[in-house]
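Posting for a labmate who doesn't have an account.
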Amino acid sequence: MDFNKKYYVLLFILSLIWVFLGQKCYNNFSPFIFFIFGLPVFSYLYFKSLINFSNLLKDKEPELFDKTAVHYGYFKNEVITSNLIKRMLSEKKRVVIPYTDSINTVLIPSEITKESDLKQNSFGYFEPKSILPVNIEEIDLVIVPGVVFDKNLNRIGFGKGYYDKILNRLKPSAKKVALAHDFQVLEDIPAEEHDVKMDMIITEKNIYPFTGLL
């Protein structure tokens, strides 16, 4: 049984116990049981699912991650990439994390060799402690965050164009792969000619497009 199924079954069983206990108690006591037992368990499973989601991506598309890859230092509600970064480092793959030059509004691709090379900056996301620049021509894969995507592989970012500046300079063979929660992928979003499309969007439920990338 895979990770998601195992914990959803556990959540279902705990929910049945919650309902049973609720029927045995007074009505005004039932919400108390939920907040004491149900909510912490649900929260734990939800966040553990987010943490492990990116670790499962390499199993979905293993060849895709056998490259020199730029990963983002996850931020707030973005898909967490720490396990994927850890796994690629353990397999001696080249891992590149952007360093944010907020003065010039550019990202500087910087190689890391171990997790301790990262620090959490004042904005709350992880970036290299020191800059070890990587030439844009050496990059084979960019893992791209975003606010919203669509099934036509369009992306809307955070508005400052940090990633667009990197994506527009990649060599033709480099792949642009977005990680997203499935609810972030809509049928269609506004896009202009200069916007950079993704080659693939991977969520916990789907891969867009399904064939033809590798």
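Reply:
Got it, the structure tokens are right above this. The CA atoms of residues 64 and 214 lie 7 Å apart.
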